[in-house]
Amino acid sequence: SQKIEQNSEALNIQEGKTATLTCNYTNYSPAYLQWYRQDPGRGPVFLLLIRENEKEKRKERLKVTFDTTLKQSLFHITASQPADSATYLCALTAGSGNTGKLIFGQGTTLQVKP
Amino acid sequence: GAVVSQHPSRVICKSGTSVKIECRSLDFQATTMFWYRQFPKKSLMLMATSNEGSKATYEQGVEKDKFLINHASLTLSTLTVTSAHPEDSSFYICSAYIVAKNIQYFGAGTRLSVL
């Protein structure tokens, strides 16, 4: 069956370090993958989208990689700040066609300590 | 841009009453909106796809008569939880889909508590 896995354990890092979050998937061939940030009691906020033919995407301190052979995406936050503390969700396109439907991972909570 | 407003943010109701949640795209039109449910420390679970001018498409296991969806305009979708019971208590989130970008923009969510 189709599966998306993110590390369910919280990631604790020191301010200024690079945070790296992992998203693995099986039995999918997604056209694109997205990363969202979710704060407690709030809806997710879109961060980055990467297509299957792209290896890497950057936006300010964020970087996403997409390895369709390994079926894995890595999400990096460089020079992390306490304000980056949140839960980060990866999401893959579901099914065929451009329906916009996404399947979400369970999220990884990042805690950046000052 | 791409702001989605969801209202109310929190609602407490008695068992047996119906609750309507609104999802509006404020600065863009969306033919497709999605409704999700999220349990504590869990991921988003897609409930249904709301299509403007047509019937919603429900995911397996979601009761369409329980969760009524109406997408009457290109900027508004509503979810009505009918005859709510305590087990319906949850965090409900909507999103509006921009086809050209392949991106969903989310509302802030609605915390429903059924007593």
Number of strands of chain B: 11
Largest sheet of chain A: 6 strands, mixed
- Low-confidence regions of chain A: none
| Percent helix of chain A | under 10%
DSSP strand count of chain A: 11
Helix segment tally of chain B: 0
Overall morphology of chain A: globular
> Largest chain interface and its two residue counts?
A-B, 22 and 25 residues
Question: Gap between N and C termini of chain A, in Å?
Answer: 41 Å
Largest sheet of chain B: 7 strands, mixed
General form of chain B = globular
Mean pLDDT of chain A: 92
Descriptive tags:
heterodimer, A: 114 residues, 6-stranded mixed sheet, 5-stranded antiparallel sheet, B: 115 residues, 7-stranded mixed sheet, 55% strand
Kindly summarize this structure in a few lines.
The complex is a heterodimer of chains A (114) and B (115). Chain A has 114 residues and is mostly beta strands.
Architecture overview:
The complex is a heterodimer of chains A (114) and B (115). Chain A has 114 residues and is mainly beta. Helices cover 0% and strands 55% of the residues of chain A. The radius of gyration of chain A is 14 Å and the shape is globular. The termini of chain A are far apart. With 115 residues, chain B is an all-beta fold. Chain B has strands at 4-7, 10-13, 19-25, 32-38, 44-51, 57-58, 67-73, 76-81, 90-98, 103-106, 110-114. Chain B is globular. Chains A and B meet through strand 4, strand 5 and strand 10 of A and strand 5, strand 9 and strand 10 of B.
